[in-house]
Amino acid sequence: MGLLAFAGLSAVLGLSDSDTAPSLSVQTYPESTDATEIAEHLELYEQERTKIAELSVALDENPVKPLVNLFDWMEEQDAKMTDPSLSVHSAESIVIQTSTFRSELEQSVADAQARRVNASGSVSEGIVDAAGNGFTDI
Hints:
The protein contains six helices and no strands. It is mainly alpha-helical. The radius of gyration is 29 Å and the shape is elongated.
């Protein structure tokens, strides 16, 4: 009985043969690298940037462009995404923020298209619609 107790205790404490005992330091799942995850986020970011560039065409030569689209912010995000010390968490956060920005820009463009029509027929609305191409409202 003492021998069985000793064998059980040695198995629990890891005193058994190292060839048959599983090693606690060996990982049994595939390891995901940060570089792979960052590359995936960079690809998503580029897709969002492409959509933003397409939407921004509606604002070309529009005097309200700086109010509608924060291009300085986008330039900062571009710089962050090319930083060699970019972490996975930062890349993911930037992609989420850029996606939100793109979504809001899509809504602004859609709203502007709806406002371009002088619904009331008033002179003041016509002037505002013409000046801001629908991106301003009274």
